[in-house]
Amino acid sequence: MNPLPVQPINKIAMHIWDRWASVWHWSFLGFVVVATLIALSESEVTWAWRGAVFVLAASLSLWYWGMIVRHPEWRQKPRPVLVYLAGAIVLSMTLVGLHPVFFMVAFSLWAHASRLLPMRWAIPVVLIDAALLAGQWIIELNLPPASALALIVIIAASTLGWLVLVLWIDSIIHQSEQRQELIEALETTRRELAAAERQAGMLEERQRMAREIHDTLAQGFTSIVMHLEAAEQALPSEAEIAHQHLDQARRTARDSLEEARRMIWATRPELLEQASLPDALTHIVARWKEESNISATAAITGTPHPLPADLEVTLLRAAQEALANARKHARAGQVTVTLSYMNDLVALDVHDNGTGFDTRSGKLQSHTGVEGGFGLQAMRERVRQLGGSFLIESAPGEGTTLVVELPVAESTK
Q1: Cys bridge to 216: 6, 76, 110, 259, which one at CB 3.0-4.6 A?
Q2: pLDDT (tens digit, 9 = 90+) per residue, 39-95?
């Protein structure tokens, strides 16, 4: 257990004095102990004198412990610190009167004043202590006027040098605190700007989606309605014309569906706005497991690092599509999703132990997810646009493995 506990002061930037508080504590107590041992080593003194030195030194140490070590929150509070300094000066001056070695203890009180008080209070305390030291020294040594004047000049110069040094250190600390305030203000502004940019980006994306839906899907659905109404009017007398309208409506519906898939693929999922790709992938696997009652695990290999947004969207959409197909078609009992970060590419593997299918038989088209998925064909095209590779390995009774590999630029690692 640390015999000198120091509780941190809650400030914008912890004062340099507080960072070295334990050093200051041990230094002062060390001065008192060393001075006491030197004084007690005198041979031509009485036991009463030794007892007085010991009691006064112990009192000074306990006074420091009780007032400063146990109450670090009093720093920069003039009233309790002035009470401590008044008692410490009285005790130290009394010790100086018993033995001159205690001058070094009295001098150390300058550091206490500078460390514990604001400068407007510390400077008068240091000047008073310096004057008392000079007077005590002159009295103890019984100096003649010339020597006394020289001593006063030396102490005055020492005091001035000490104050200049302390004021310089205090200005550096003040600048550091101002710099810390500025850094925190800039960081707050950066976060606010980032939030504003995200909000503006979301608004812009909504507006873009609204325009695209209006220009594509809305017009397509309008065309479908018109053709269905025309087909309804042509039935049953003009069946051939009705079939033409129905075919046209079917083609328009397919085109609109592909357009919807294109927009969905291009939209960044909300999961990726709130979490990293590994966390988002783990989340959707856990949710899919809960909804499908099929055992599923997610594994991340390599060292995850941020990827371009289009790569992350593609990998997450591919995982969603593969899981949807495994649930609808594979009749699997176990699905494993693995995201692998490698030197120059990132790979997604989705393996299920379901029924599988013959990839050469053309049954791949049954896994395109027309009933609401994104579609393997759309996935393949998206991966190809990003310069990656798309592979499905399957055989009847041996399950299915979907592999997506995308190249990663060196600058994104």
Answers
A1: 259
A2: 888 877 788 888 998 999 999 889 888 888 887 777 667 788 888 888 888 888 888
Does residue 279 belong to any structural domain of this protein?
yes
Structural domains counted in the chain: 1
Residue 387 lies in a domain: yes
pTM value is: 0.40
Residue 248 in domain: no
Tokens 């085109």 -> residue: 255
Residue 323 structure tokens: 């899981």
Q: Name the residue range of residue 372's domain.
A: 270-412
The answer to whether residues 245 and 229 touch, using CB atoms and an 8 Å cutoff, is no
Does 281 reside within a domain?
A: yes
For the domain that residue 326 is a member of, what is the CATH number?
A: 3.30.565.10
